[in-house]
Specification:
Shape: globular
Order of helices and strands: HHHHHHHHHHHHHH
Distance between the termini: 39 Å
Radius of gyration: 25 Å
Number of strands: 0
Largest sheet: none
Number of helices: 14
């Protein structure tokens, strides 16, 4: 009798869930139409417009726009920023997630809040913070000037600004994943005599690899497309401190629409490629 009650409760739950899915066909079609229309209007149509405008003046103009020295410099700088910021954020994300999920310590909630801070602060404000710290009139401005070190309006400032806005992506992906997995496997490994590093590389890392890759992809996408914070600290120097988004803005403001959309199409291709990789990772994570 004691075992009968939960079974009855389970049947009731299944019936309730099943009945809740029986919406009228009209409602389902209407919801589907609204969702698809919204996606078509605000995602697909703008994407098509980017490529149509990019090739509006022909392939020759398109190739000239993306092989322009300033465009190549912007692409190169964007890739440099990505290659530096994404690995640093990946390492920070793993360390922070490990610390938060495996240890109890005072100030844990403060650390979690600080990791969320870049999501709450406007990128423009983040850029201004670096100006106040490292600008000519900033807190460390005089010392940096005496040491002949330039951060603001130079590549280091762009890297710092991008690092700030992309900091949470890997950590926020790993923390809930590692909390759900618990620490039983690590404890078993340590009990059997494995060292901490061996436990991390042979037990923890394989368990979080798909979540880590997912976080890295999101971080990579944001680093490529970051505009606000980078715009404040870059100085908009052609061929030197312009990333791809800044180069597009300059071209657009100069009414070079075909060239602007040509570079924008490159960023769109990168974004689409990122989405494809993200979906592959999600699929693999579900089927392993």
């Amino acid at each position: 009798m004691a075992g009968h009650v939960p079974m009855q409760h389970a049947k009731t739950t299944v019936k309730l869930n099943h009945s809740s899915l029986k919406e009228p066909k009209v409602v389902r079609w209407l919801l589907t139409f609204i969702a698809l229309a919204f996606l078509a209007l605000f995602l697909v149509l703008p994407l098509i417009t980017i490529f149509m405008t990019a090739f509006q003046k022909g392939l020759e103009t398109y190739l000239a726009a993306i092989t322009n020295p300033d465009a190549l410099a912007a692409i190169k700088l964007t890739l440099i920023v990505v290659l530096i910021t994404v690995p640093l954020n990946a390492v920070f994300g793993v360390v922070a997630a490990w610390l938060i999920t495996k240890f109890d310590f005072k100030g844990k909630n403060i650390l979690i809040t600080l990791i969320d801070l870049p999501f709450a602060v406007s990128p423009v404000i983040a850029g201004l913070v670096f100006i106040l710290l490292f600008g000519a009139q900033g807190l460390f401005g005089e010392w940096l000037f005496n040491q002949d070190i330039k951060i603001v309006f130079a590549i280091p400032g762009i890297i710092l600004a991008t690092l700030f806005v992309t900091l949470p992506f890997v950590a926020k992906e790993l923390i809930p994943l590692m909390q759900a997995q618990g620490s039983a496997e690590e404890e078993a490994s340590l009990t059997l005599g494995a060292s901490g590093f061996k436990t991390f590389f042979l037990v923890t890392l394989p368990n979080i690899k798909w979540g880590l890759l997912y976080g890295i992809i999101l971080c990579n996408a944001r680093a490529i497309g970051e505009f606000g914070a980078v715009s404040v600290v870059s100085g908009h120097i052609r061929g030197m401190t312009n990333t791809m988004p800044l180069h597009i803005e300059i071209l657009y403001n100069e009414y070079q629409f075909a060239a602007a959309f040509a570079v924008a199409s490159l960023m769109s291709v990168l974004a689409i490629f990122t989405l494809i990789v993200k979906n592959i990772i999600e699929w693999k994570a579900k089927h392993i």
